[in-house]
Specification:
Strand order of the largest sheet: 1-2
Number of domains: 1
Oligomer: single chain
Strand content: under 5%
Amino acid sequence: MRSTRTVRDTRMSERLRALHRATLEIVGAMNRPQRDEALIAEAGIALDRALFPLLVAIERFGPIGVVELAEGVGRDYTTVSRQLAKLESLGLTHRRASVADRRVRPAVVTPRGKATTKLIDAARERMARAVLAAWKASEIDHLARLMKKFAEALNGEAPVVSPVKPAAPARRSPRRSRPNPSRRPSGSPSR
């Protein structure tokens, strides 16, 4: 007979695999070029598909530096730097000197950029309403609350607690001394 703990662990593993699969499916759907093209068309704007997620990210998280922006959209910072220059030339963003670090020039949206993101937001809402048309309001509220909680946990905003109790250390022979983790050789990574 299997222990309750093993059954619980198996169920948790199944849940985590299901959560991971759903997350991959959502990310895959969100990253499809056709989805961005449809959103751009629905918004009625003329904007290169590669620039669209950058503009939205700058509006949501700006002022934001090139490196942070590149990490957020999963692109190389040199590519993002060139794309930021394009957004600036279109009058949708501008970069300003940072008060904290003069080497950094974070990007912010211009009024024209904000007007563009408002059109994108309205189009996104129309498209989301169509996707969620058969859902109850309580289901949408529940999904939004849990997705926010999940995003915060992934980004380290919520405490990370291991539900699994660490295994007891293996018993060693009394003649051997245990290594002291605080006395690592220099250059040795600590994980």
